[in-house]
Amino acid sequence: MKRSFFGTDGIRGTANQEPMTAATALRVGMAAGRQFTRGAHRHRVVIGKDTRLSGYLIEPALTAGFISVGMDVVLVGPMPTPAVAMLTRSLRADLGVMISASHNPYADNGIKLFGPDGYKLSDEAEHEIEAHMQNGLEEGLAPPDKLGRALRLDDADGRYIEFVKNTFPRGRRLDGLRIVLDCANGAAYKVAPTVLWELEAEVIPLAVKPDGFNINHNCGSTATDAMRSAVVAHHADLGIALDGDADRVVVADENGRIIDGDQLMAMVAERWHREGRLAGGGIVATVMSNLGLERHLGEIGLRLDRTQVGDRYVVEQMRKSGCNVGGEQSGHIILNDFVTTGDGLIAALQALAVIVEDGRPVSQVARRFEPLPQILKNVRFSSGRPLDNAAVQRAIKDGQRRLGAAGRLLIRPSGTEPLIRVMAEGEDEALVGEIVDSIVGALQQVAA
């Protein structure tokens, strides 16, 4: 069944336009509250958000929806997405909600839902919530004496900070490390610098002054120029960049060169494998992860399971295969010994544990394999189905033929934006570039 509201990562869109209106947020609260009201106990939902101006629109609408079906609401304010997942479990809540559009610009917003176990909802659960939204909500309304209440959790920051610090190996500290930390003017602008400082690092903070409009603007994990320049300018040991809701991370070495999620996963997996902590015989990644990662893991006897793009699909496969390390090249790293979703700060700490233990410069420690040439380009479109066009299909088939078995070609629509993503990788960088440009050109003719 085609979904009307939910995409690959909850509901997302331009703020104050459907589906990200107060009216729809109210219905989401009512429908999700009805779906997760099970039993006679007093039900509870945790709601967090990032720093977008539109959070002030979406948060009260969701709150009203949940209260209307008898759920108590615990408001935690600006907090990372993984913090909401953690608090949902810690507070024994029935549901968790994060208001965020992740790495998107401030004008967008989104709603992510977590079950009582702290995991993102399945496709089936989202289907059921949509069915409630579309088939009337009056049946689930609470009588006047059963309405919910709203309260603010004042120590949410402290709870999450201590939780994250306790994932760092006992007896290890970060003293002696100078770290540039880019918080994207987002949800981790307070907690992330505190964690690193309390672990004794010297922290050079960037993008920690959110104003409702500057989240992800020329900062964060998708715009790393400022972070990389600061690493070089301050002679730092490394840089860390989070995204707007802090569920993804990328790192820069002492020379300002980016270390992506594939390299971070390899670092953690190798260390855990040596220590006998790596479960499932390998890791889980998506179809976007570099073929170099797969070959590298194979050389040390580890397996790479691939899923479709989306960290929740990675998590689902991790739970099926028993793996405890997984993630995406973009920097969503899931370490389910600690967390149920991507956590940029915890992933960074696990990488830092490897760096501290090794003692060499980050450029030598963090580059675990040589990636194959890989090129990714995005084509924006306004309407229709550009991938169905005959000329586009011919360009794709020709690209597959030219790459052959030595490379990979992946063309897919984004689940969160009106984009077609075109990715190719192979041994010959020039050939890879030609193939991507040919397909992008065909798509642009259709999308124009």
Short key terms for the protein model shown above:
single chain, 448 residues, Alpha-D-Glucose-1,6-Bisphosphate, Chain A, domain 3, 4 domains, six-stranded mixed β-sheet, five-stranded mixed β-sheet
Describe the structure.
By secondary structure, this protein is an alpha/beta fold. The protein has helices at residues 22-35, 55-68, 81-90, 123-134, 156-165, 191-198, 225-233, 261-274, 291-299, 311-321, 344-358, 362-365, 390-403, 429-447, and strands at 11-14, 44-49, 72-78, 95-99, 108-114, 150-152, 178-182, 202-206, 238-242, 249-252, 258-259, 282-286, 303-307, 326-327, 333-334, 374-380, 408-413, 419-425. The chain has 4 domains: 11-154, 3-Layer(aba) Sandwich (Alpha-D-Glucose-1,6-Bisphosphate, Chain A, domain 3); 173-258, Alpha-D-Glucose-1,6-Bisphosphate, subunit A, domain 3 (Alpha-D-Glucose-1,6-Bisphosphate, Chain A, domain 3, 3-Layer(aba) Sandwich), CATH 3.40.120.10; 261-365, Alpha-D-Glucose-1,6-Bisphosphate, subunit A, domain 3 (Alpha-D-Glucose-1,6-Bisphosphate, Chain A, domain 3), CATH 3.40.120; 374-447, TATA-Binding Protein (2-Layer Sandwich), CATH 3.30.310.50. It has 14 helices and 18 strands. It is globular and about 70 Å long.
